């Protein structure tokens, strides 16, 4: 076991270095190299696939279950409202500024510090596998999903995302639907054609008003929003086609496939899901890791925002320092004390079960 203050100092130094390197989704080579080198400097064997880096505890035992610790090192593009250099790690008034500081650099380095704390323990009931993953911000196929077949079986996961160190025990999934209503073209001046816009409007109204029978206890109802609509070519032609896009935030009450089937059974438009892979996730409140957090005074809630949990096929808890409300904002920051608290709480929670 390492001294927590030393771990905190190393984590903070690493985060400052990460901020200074551009790591847009699909362009994370520099930060992957940095993380790989950070572990190698400590004589910890690393594994790498693409821009994903992972490590195991020193006394990994195939007879024991494994806890996955995961957070990402890619970032979104800087918000146009930035007044600071997004790649300059600066500290003012207890805040560390920089792109990716809050989402999710603070979480990643706090999980790395936690991993190092347990790294050499011989008496663990669980193994640890820490994965610093790529492409989270775009739900890319070369991120956490890319390495799931390589890292071995996992019992459950802690996904580091900013939650103010409260316990996100459920998270909404996502489906984007392309819908197309088909009519028949005709001249607008005569009683001709079958207006596809009018057909689409009936379905748009259904998406606006429909309530699914089952509601998630933690996430509430499925939310459907029509976000894009396109039709017509000129003022005097009745359109034969009207296409629209629907953003569907799914819950653990239905699988994505079940949700899609219900939608198709109610609308006349042709409906195609771009993907069903971004699934809602949840962990029982009775799970030992959740109970450990509750015992330390942390609150449970359902998260409306999506993370790599959507792609991890084992029970997972979203938990991390920082505030989701700061993610992707201009002049992004994390409080330095949030990182210290994050490390301490991760360790305290895990100490109750490992």
Write a structural description.
This protein has two domains: 4-171 and 280-351, Zn peptidases (Aminopeptidase, 3-Layer(aba) Sandwich), CATH 3.40.630; 173-273, Alpha-Beta Plaits (2-Layer Sandwich), CATH 3.30.70.360. Helix content is 29%, strand content 24%. The chain has eight helices and 18 strands. It has helices at 4-19, 29-40, 101-118, 144-151, 196-209, 256-266, 288-295, 336-351; strands spanning 47-49, 52-56, 66-72, 90-92, 95-97, 127-133, 156-159, 167-171, 173-182, 186-187, 223-231, 237-238, 241-250, 270-273, 281-282, 300-303, 316-318, 333-335. The strands form five sheets. It has a six-stranded mixed beta sheet with strand order 1-2-6-3-7-17, with helices on both faces. Strands 11-13-9-14 form a four-stranded antiparallel beta sheet. The protein has a three-stranded antiparallel beta sheet with strand order 4-5-18. Helix 1 (4-19) packs antiparallel against helix 3, helix 1 packs across helix 8 (336-351) and helix 3 (101-118) packs across helix 8. It is elongated, with a radius of gyration of 23 Å.
């Amino acid at each position: 076991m390492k001294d927590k203050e030393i771990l905190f100092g190393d984590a903070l130094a690493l985060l400052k270095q990460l901020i200074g390197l551009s790591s847009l989704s699909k362009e994370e080579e520099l930060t992957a190299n940095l993380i790989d080198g950070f572990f190698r400097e400590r004589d910890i064997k690393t594994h790498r696939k693409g821009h994903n880096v992972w490590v195991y505890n020193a006394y990994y035992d195939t007879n024991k279950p494994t806890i996955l610790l995961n957070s990402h090192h890619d970032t979104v593009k800087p918000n146009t409202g930035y007044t600071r250099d997004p790649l300059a790690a600066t500290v003012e008034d207890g805040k560390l500024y920089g792109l990716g500081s809050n989402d999710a650099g603070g979480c990643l380095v706090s999980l790395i510090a936690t991993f190092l704390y347990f790294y050499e323990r011989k008496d663990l009931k669980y193994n640890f596998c820490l994965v610093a993953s790529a492409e989270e911000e775009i739900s890319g196929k070369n991120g956490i999903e890319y390495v799931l077949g390589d890292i071995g079986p996992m019992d459950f996961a802690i996904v580091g995302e900013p939650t103010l160190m409260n316990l996100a025990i459920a998270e909404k999934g996502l489906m984007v639907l392309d819908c197309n209503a088909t009519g028949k073209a005709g001249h607008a001046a005569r009683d001709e054609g079958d207006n596809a816009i009018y057909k689409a409007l009936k379905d748009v109204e259904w998406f606006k008003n429909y309530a699914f029978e089952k509601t998630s206890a933690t996430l509430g109802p499925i939310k459907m929003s029509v976000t894009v609509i396109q039709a017509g070519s000129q003022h005097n032609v009745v359109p034969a086609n009207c296409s629209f896009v629907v953003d569907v935030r799914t819950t653990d009450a239905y699988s994505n496939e079940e949700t899609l089937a219900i939608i198709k059974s109610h609308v006349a438009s042709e409906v195609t899901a771009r993907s069903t892979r971004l699934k809602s996730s949840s962990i029982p409140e009775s799970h030992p890791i959740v109970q450990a957090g509750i015992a330390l005074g942390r609150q449970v809630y359902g998260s409306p925002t999506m993370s790599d949990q959507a792609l991890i096929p084992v029970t997972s808890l979203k938990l991390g320092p920082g505030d989701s409300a700061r993610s992707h904002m201009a002049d992004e920051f994390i409080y330095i004390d949030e990182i210290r608290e994050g490390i301490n709480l991760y360790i305290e929670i895990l100490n109750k079960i490992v």
